[in-house]
């Protein structure tokens, strides 16, 4: 089982910055990708940014140029630096860790979610 814990949420004024952290722990064979999602009240959860182990980071169009995702592979940790936050960016931010295992049934991916961290942006 993999545990995922986010931290770093808080309240900022529009234009401010926050840095979120997400640490994965437990029995981890191989991390395939680490990602940040967000969900505002009454809206669907949306992908904000993700960084695969074998590939480049990618971002939602709405955050390109303002958010930066980075990983510390040795610590199984992913960060999301958020600059120039806008009121519409207020949401619960969730980290998802996807792991890959190779077994008798072939290659299987597993997704593990954190409990979320709240970001509030005031205008």
How would you describe this structure to a colleague?
The chain has 123 residues and is an all-beta fold. It has strands spanning 2-7, 10-13, 18-26, 31-39, 46-52, 58-59, 67-72, 77-82, 91-103, 106-113, 117-122. Strands 2, 4, 5, 6, 9, 10 and 11 form a seven-stranded mixed sheet that branches. The protein has a four-stranded antiparallel sheet with strand order 1-3-8-7, with no helix packed on it.
Helix percentage: under 10%
Radius of gyration: 15 Å
The number of distinct helices, counting runs of at least 4 residues, comes to 0
Low-confidence stretches are none
Q: Specify the overall morphology.
A: elongated
Structural class: mainly beta
Could you tell me the strand content as a percent range? Answer: over 45%
Mean pLDDT: 96
What is the ordering of alpha helices and beta strands? EEEEEEEEEEE
Q: Tell how many strands the DSSP assignment holds.
A: 11
End-to-end Cα distance, whole Å, is 40 Å
- How would you sum up the major sheet? 7 strands, mixed
